[in-house]
Amino acid sequence: MDETILDFERFNHLPLLDDHGCVVLKDLEAIGTIFMRHGLQDHYAAGRLHRHTVLQEGSVMVHRPMSGYDECTASSRDETSLRPHSLYLNHEGIFQAYEYEITTSSRPALEPGFLNELKATLISLGLASTISIVPNHARGEHDEVERLLPDGRGMRTEKSSDGDTGPEEEYVETTWSFEEGEAGGIRIKPRKRCLKFISGVHQVIRD
Q1: Which of 137, 124, 111 is CA-nearest to residue 26?
Q2: What is the tens place of the pLDDT at every residue in 147-189?
Q3: CA atoms of 183 and 191, how far apart (whole Å)
Q4: Contacts with 167 (C-beta within 8 Å, 6 or more apart), sequence order
Q5: Which residue ranges make up each domain of the chain?
Q6: Pick from 75, 76, 83, 136: most CB atoms within 10 A?
Q7: CA–CA gap between residue 144 and residue 186 (Å, rounded)
Q8: 113-160: per-residue pLDDT in tens?
Q9: Within the chain, how many helices (H) and strands (E) appear?
Q10: Is 67 helix (H, G, I), strand (E, B) or coil?
Q11: Residue 176 C-beta-side C-alpha neighbours within 13 Å
Protein backbone atom coordinates (compact mmCIF):
# COMPACT_ATOMS: atom_id res chain seq x y z
CA MET A 1 0.00 0.00 0.00
CA ASP A 2 1.24 3.48 -0.88
CA GLU A 3 1.30 5.46 2.39
CA THR A 4 2.16 8.77 0.69
CA ILE A 5 -0.44 11.51 1.30
CA LEU A 6 -2.36 11.99 -1.94
CA ASP A 7 -1.49 15.16 -3.84
CA PHE A 8 -4.39 17.57 -4.46
CA GLU A 9 -3.92 17.37 -8.22
CA ARG A 10 -4.27 13.59 -8.20
CA PHE A 11 -7.38 13.87 -6.05
CA ASN A 12 -8.90 16.31 -8.54
CA HIS A 13 -8.48 13.72 -11.29
CA LEU A 14 -10.69 11.22 -9.47
CA PRO A 15 -14.10 10.73 -11.14
CA LEU A 16 -17.06 12.90 -10.18
CA LEU A 17 -20.26 11.20 -9.09
CA ASP A 18 -21.82 11.97 -12.48
CA ASP A 19 -19.00 10.00 -14.13
CA HIS A 20 -19.60 6.86 -12.11
CA GLY A 21 -19.25 3.58 -13.94
CA CYS A 22 -21.69 0.70 -14.00
CA VAL A 23 -21.41 -1.83 -11.17
CA VAL A 24 -23.47 -5.00 -11.60
CA LEU A 25 -24.48 -7.66 -9.10
CA LYS A 26 -22.18 -10.41 -10.36
CA ASP A 27 -19.18 -8.09 -10.07
CA LEU A 28 -20.10 -7.18 -6.50
CA GLU A 29 -20.41 -10.88 -5.70
CA ALA A 30 -16.87 -11.48 -6.98
CA ILE A 31 -15.57 -8.53 -4.96
CA GLY A 32 -17.50 -9.55 -1.85
CA THR A 33 -16.05 -13.05 -2.01
CA ILE A 34 -12.59 -11.55 -1.52
CA PHE A 35 -13.65 -9.42 1.46
CA MET A 36 -15.22 -12.45 3.13
CA ARG A 37 -12.39 -14.86 2.33
CA HIS A 38 -10.02 -12.54 4.19
CA GLY A 39 -12.46 -11.95 7.08
CA LEU A 40 -12.75 -8.20 6.46
CA GLN A 41 -16.48 -7.86 5.77
CA ASP A 42 -17.29 -6.52 9.26
CA HIS A 43 -14.70 -3.77 8.99
CA TYR A 44 -14.53 -2.76 5.31
CA ALA A 45 -16.92 -2.39 2.39
CA ALA A 46 -16.72 -1.73 -1.34
CA GLY A 47 -17.22 1.90 -2.34
CA ARG A 48 -17.95 3.67 -5.60
CA LEU A 49 -14.86 5.79 -6.25
CA HIS A 50 -15.92 9.42 -6.69
CA ARG A 51 -15.36 12.93 -5.42
CA HIS A 52 -17.53 16.02 -4.96
CA THR A 53 -14.90 18.64 -4.23
CA VAL A 54 -12.06 20.41 -6.04
CA LEU A 55 -9.13 20.56 -3.65
CA GLN A 56 -6.69 23.44 -3.43
CA GLU A 57 -2.96 22.98 -2.97
CA GLY A 58 -2.04 21.86 0.54
CA SER A 59 -5.43 20.33 1.34
CA VAL A 60 -6.88 16.83 1.67
CA MET A 61 -10.32 15.41 2.44
CA VAL A 62 -10.66 14.47 6.12
CA HIS A 63 -13.50 12.59 7.87
CA ARG A 64 -14.54 13.71 11.34
CA PRO A 65 -17.15 11.86 13.41
CA MET A 66 -19.77 14.25 14.78
CA SER A 67 -22.79 13.68 17.00
CA GLY A 68 -24.99 11.42 14.88
CA TYR A 69 -23.22 11.93 11.57
CA ASP A 70 -19.88 12.06 9.76
CA GLU A 71 -18.46 15.08 7.95
CA CYS A 72 -15.79 14.88 5.27
CA THR A 73 -14.30 18.29 4.50
CA ALA A 74 -11.29 19.84 2.82
CA SER A 75 -8.65 20.38 5.49
CA SER A 76 -5.03 21.40 5.77
CA ARG A 77 -2.55 18.67 4.96
CA ASP A 78 -1.09 17.69 8.34
CA GLU A 79 0.86 14.54 7.67
CA THR A 80 1.50 13.85 11.35
CA SER A 81 -2.14 13.19 12.21
CA LEU A 82 -3.68 11.77 9.02
CA ARG A 83 -4.66 8.11 8.79
CA PRO A 84 -6.10 6.29 5.75
CA HIS A 85 -9.90 6.19 5.55
CA SER A 86 -10.84 5.33 1.94
CA LEU A 87 -8.44 3.79 -0.58
CA TYR A 88 -8.33 3.52 -4.36
CA LEU A 89 -6.08 1.80 -6.89
CA ASN A 90 -3.79 4.56 -8.14
CA HIS A 91 -2.15 4.91 -11.56
CA GLU A 92 0.84 2.89 -10.37
CA GLY A 93 -1.45 -0.01 -9.51
CA ILE A 94 -1.04 0.45 -5.75
CA PHE A 95 -3.80 1.08 -3.23
CA GLN A 96 -3.53 4.57 -1.73
CA ALA A 97 -5.77 6.63 0.53
CA TYR A 98 -7.74 9.45 -1.09
CA GLU A 99 -9.73 10.38 2.03
CA TYR A 100 -8.34 10.47 5.56
CA GLU A 101 -9.32 10.51 9.21
CA ILE A 102 -7.62 11.83 12.33
CA THR A 103 -9.12 9.45 14.87
CA THR A 104 -7.55 6.14 15.82
CA SER A 105 -9.22 3.26 14.00
CA SER A 106 -9.82 -0.24 15.35
CA ARG A 107 -10.06 -1.66 11.84
CA PRO A 108 -7.51 -4.39 11.08
CA ALA A 109 -4.64 -3.64 8.73
CA LEU A 110 -5.12 -4.56 5.08
CA GLU A 111 -2.69 -7.36 4.28
CA PRO A 112 -0.88 -7.66 0.92
CA GLY A 113 -2.70 -10.91 0.13
CA PHE A 114 -6.08 -9.18 0.24
CA LEU A 115 -4.91 -6.10 -1.65
CA ASN A 116 -3.25 -8.12 -4.41
CA GLU A 117 -6.27 -10.37 -4.88
CA LEU A 118 -8.66 -7.42 -4.95
CA LYS A 119 -6.42 -5.55 -7.39
CA ALA A 120 -6.33 -8.49 -9.81
CA THR A 121 -10.10 -8.88 -9.63
CA LEU A 122 -10.84 -5.19 -10.16
CA ILE A 123 -8.54 -5.10 -13.18
CA SER A 124 -10.10 -8.24 -14.68
CA LEU A 125 -13.61 -6.79 -14.21
CA GLY A 126 -12.65 -3.39 -15.63
CA LEU A 127 -13.43 -1.73 -12.29
CA ALA A 128 -9.97 -0.53 -11.25
CA SER A 129 -11.08 3.10 -11.52
CA THR A 130 -14.60 2.47 -10.19
CA ILE A 131 -14.36 0.55 -6.89
CA SER A 132 -12.62 1.69 -3.71
CA ILE A 133 -12.13 0.28 -0.21
CA VAL A 134 -14.09 2.12 2.50
CA PRO A 135 -14.87 1.53 6.19
CA ASN A 136 -18.00 -0.46 6.97
CA HIS A 137 -19.59 1.91 9.47
CA ALA A 138 -23.19 0.75 9.05
CA ARG A 139 -24.54 -1.79 11.50
CA GLY A 140 -27.81 -3.71 11.54
CA GLU A 141 -30.34 -2.98 8.81
CA HIS A 142 -29.99 0.79 8.50
CA ASP A 143 -28.10 2.45 5.69
CA GLU A 144 -26.64 5.92 5.22
CA VAL A 145 -27.25 8.91 3.00
CA GLU A 146 -24.74 11.53 1.86
CA ARG A 147 -25.47 15.17 1.02
CA LEU A 148 -23.26 18.13 0.23
CA LEU A 149 -22.63 20.78 2.87
CA PRO A 150 -24.16 24.17 1.96
CA ASP A 151 -20.80 25.93 1.75
CA GLY A 152 -19.48 23.43 -0.79
CA ARG A 153 -16.50 22.42 1.35
CA GLY A 154 -17.45 18.77 1.71
CA MET A 155 -20.25 16.39 2.55
CA ARG A 156 -22.21 14.94 5.46
CA THR A 157 -23.19 11.30 5.91
CA GLU A 158 -25.93 10.29 8.32
CA LYS A 159 -28.43 7.52 8.95
CA SER A 160 -31.08 7.44 6.24
CA SER A 161 -34.83 7.66 6.80
CA ASP A 162 -37.91 6.80 4.75
CA GLY A 163 -38.43 10.41 3.68
CA ASP A 164 -34.96 11.00 2.27
CA THR A 165 -35.90 10.72 -1.40
CA GLY A 166 -38.57 13.06 -2.75
CA PRO A 167 -40.43 13.03 -6.10
CA GLU A 168 -37.80 15.17 -7.82
CA GLU A 169 -34.83 13.30 -6.36
CA GLU A 170 -32.89 10.15 -7.10
CA TYR A 171 -29.97 8.41 -5.49
CA VAL A 172 -26.78 6.65 -6.50
CA GLU A 173 -25.59 3.70 -4.43
CA THR A 174 -22.01 4.34 -3.32
CA THR A 175 -21.22 1.68 -0.70
CA TRP A 176 -21.94 -2.05 -0.45
CA SER A 177 -21.24 -4.36 2.48
CA PHE A 178 -21.12 -8.14 2.38
CA GLU A 179 -22.31 -10.93 4.62
CA GLU A 180 -23.02 -14.63 4.39
CA GLY A 181 -26.23 -15.44 2.58
CA GLU A 182 -28.26 -18.58 2.04
CA ALA A 183 -26.59 -21.83 0.99
CA GLY A 184 -23.13 -20.36 1.49
CA GLY A 185 -23.75 -17.48 -0.90
CA ILE A 186 -23.05 -13.79 -0.39
CA ARG A 187 -25.62 -11.21 0.61
CA ILE A 188 -24.86 -7.78 -0.81
CA LYS A 189 -26.27 -4.85 1.17
CA PRO A 190 -26.32 -1.30 -0.23
CA ARG A 191 -25.11 0.76 2.73
CA LYS A 192 -24.70 4.30 1.48
CA ARG A 193 -26.24 6.46 -1.22
CA CYS A 194 -25.68 9.96 -2.53
CA LEU A 195 -28.86 11.96 -3.07
CA LYS A 196 -29.24 13.96 -6.26
CA PHE A 197 -32.01 15.92 -7.89
CA ILE A 198 -33.25 14.35 -11.13
CA SER A 199 -31.69 17.35 -12.91
CA GLY A 200 -28.31 15.90 -11.87
CA VAL A 201 -27.51 18.44 -9.14
CA HIS A 202 -26.29 16.85 -5.91
CA GLN A 203 -28.65 17.46 -2.99
CA VAL A 204 -27.38 20.02 -0.46
CA ILE A 205 -28.17 20.00 3.25
CA ARG A 206 -30.75 22.62 4.20
CA ASP A 207 -29.72 24.26 7.45
Answers
A1: 124
A2: 888 777 788 888 876 555 444 457 789 999 999 988 778 999 9
A3: 23
A4: none
A5: 8-197
A6: 136
A7: 21
A8: 999 999 999 999 999 999 999 999 765 556 888 888 877 778 888 887
A9: 3, 10
A10: coil
A11: 25
